[in-house]
Specification:
Strand order of the largest sheet: 2-1-3-4-5
Radius of gyration: 24 Å
Number of helices: 9
CATH superfamily of the largest domain: Resolvase, N-terminal catalytic domain
Shape: elongated
Largest sheet: 5 strands, mixed
Helix content: 40-55%
Mean pLDDT: 84
Number of strands: 7
CATH topology of the largest domain: Rossmann fold
Low-confidence stretches: none
Order of helices and strands: EHHEHEHHEEHEEHHH
Strand content: 15-25%
Oligomer: single chain
Distance between the termini: 65 Å
Number of domains: 2
Structural class: alpha/beta
CATH class of the largest domain: Alpha Beta
CATH architecture of the largest domain: 3-Layer(aba) Sandwich
Length: 231
């Protein structure tokens, strides 16, 4: 059977940052299917869906998996990260698809076109996916190191945190806000929950950094920010 499902996905952030287009992905996938002699039975489009969401939990992903169970034998996607969270997720799922003779076609995997119809294709998928995962890990490591450097030198690294004001690219301590940070940390050390701390600050009419209300998540971010432990 040559029935295939084309799968495209963009997240909202990607659309804003780089203009990644579902239509552009669609065009490339259809052109590939024609050349490969595949009959397109469906185009699945995921718009504003994060790649961190497991395939089976995405609306379009659920539909695609249903079509595979109904008899479609090929999946075509532009890149591996359109479908999967990481290399481990990709390899685990493709092994399951191999058992039911479902072939995965990736048009751009590290600059290579790969499909899992042959042992060589499956080997290339394993090697290139592993290298891509290594590169992502190295980037994350470098980003974390750069963030720590900025924090250690009180340089701007994100929206200005509570306790500081921005002066160019430097973070300048704000005595009043620093006192509030210390109070929050002390309340937590004394056993108050994050929800309880937020409720207490709201009850006293104390506004947040940008004038809003306090929430447990806000308190959690303050307590987890190692910027305050580097004072």
């Amino acid at each position: 059977m040559n029935h295939c499902v084309l799968y495209t996905r963009v997240s909202t952030q990607e659309q804003c940052d780089s203009g990644v287009s579902l239509d552009a992905q669609d065009e490339r996938l259809r052109a590939y299917a024609t050349v490969a002699g595949l009959s397109v039975v469906a185009l699945v489009r995921e718009e504003g869906v994060s790649g961190k969401t497991p395939l089976g939990h995405r609306p379009g992903g659920k539909e695609m998996l249903r079509m595979l169970r109904a008899g479609a034998q090929h999946i075509v996607a532009l890149k591996l990260d359109r479908l999967f969270r990481d290399a481990e997720d990709a390899l685990r799922q493709t092994r399951e698809w191999d058992k039911t003779n479902v072939t995965l076609h990736i048009l751009d995997l590290g600059g290579q076109m790969v499909n899992t119809a042959s042992p060589m294709g499956r080997m290339l998928l394993t090697v290139i996916a592993g290298m891509a995962e290594l590169e992502r890990s190295l980037i994350a490591e470098r980003t974390a190191a750069a963030l720590q450097h900025k924090k250690a030198h009180h340089q701007v690294y994100s929206p200005t945190p509570l306790g500081y004001q921005r002066d160019g690219n430097q973070l300048i301590p704000d005595a009043e806000e620093q006192a509030l940070v210390s109070r929050i940390r002390q309340l937590h050390d004394d056993g108050a929950s994050m929800t309880g701390i937020a409720g207490q600050l709201n009850g006293e009419g104390i506004v947040g950094k940008n004038g809003g209300r306090w929430y447990a998540t806000t308190i959690s971010k303050i307590l987890a920010n190692d910027l305050y432990t580097q004072e």
